[in-house]
Write a structure and sequence with these properties.
single chain; alpha/beta; four-stranded mixed sheet; 8 strands
Length: 152
């Protein structure tokens, strides 16, 4: 058995791609559009996983991936599914990453007060955990005293 992907339903594909690809930095590996099924699937990988995705094609399906599913006619509000939990990504510099995301309008749910962990929110209200690569960074302002926003 091997892990393939996680699927997230999105309400607005452009807004989702702006977050996952343009702001968070994931790379689109491929997409499928079905006129008959009236949906678009967009598959994304973390930049450091892109080589693994390509190498895994030899085993059949590429992995590890994030699948964004956009239903063209979907009027359903997927709401905030707390039973889902979150996705997690390791970053080179948690403070720089959070500052860049915040400047781009992304909500910081749980600031990286400890220099190690933060949570942000996608446009579809999915929680995304960011973890510092290696040892935690020393606490630093404005993060160390910033309050939480909402929940994750």
């Amino acid at each position: 058995m091997r892990y393939l992907h996680t699927m997230l339903r999105v309400r607005n594909l452009d807004a989702a791609l702006d977050f996952w690809r343009d702001k968070l930095g994931l790379v689109e590996t491929h997409r499928t559009e079905s006129e008959k099924g009236r949906y678009t699937l967009v598959f994304l990988a973390a930049p450091e996983d892109e080589g693994d995705v390509e190498a895994s094609r030899a085993k059949g399906r590429p992995a590890p991936l994030l699948e964004l599913t956009y239903n063209w006619d979907g009027d359903e509000d997927y709401a905030e599914a707390r039973y889902f939990g979150h996705l997690a990504f390791e970053v080179d510099d948690i403070y720089d990453t959070c500052a860049r995301l915040q400047a781009a309008g992304v909500t910081i749910l749980r600031p990286p007060r400890d220099g190690q962990m933060a949570f942000v929110r996608s446009p579809d209200r999915q929680s995304v955990e960011l973890l510092q690569k290696g040892a935690a960074k020393p606490p630093q302002e404005p993060w160390s005293t910033m309050p939480n926003t909402g929940h994750w």
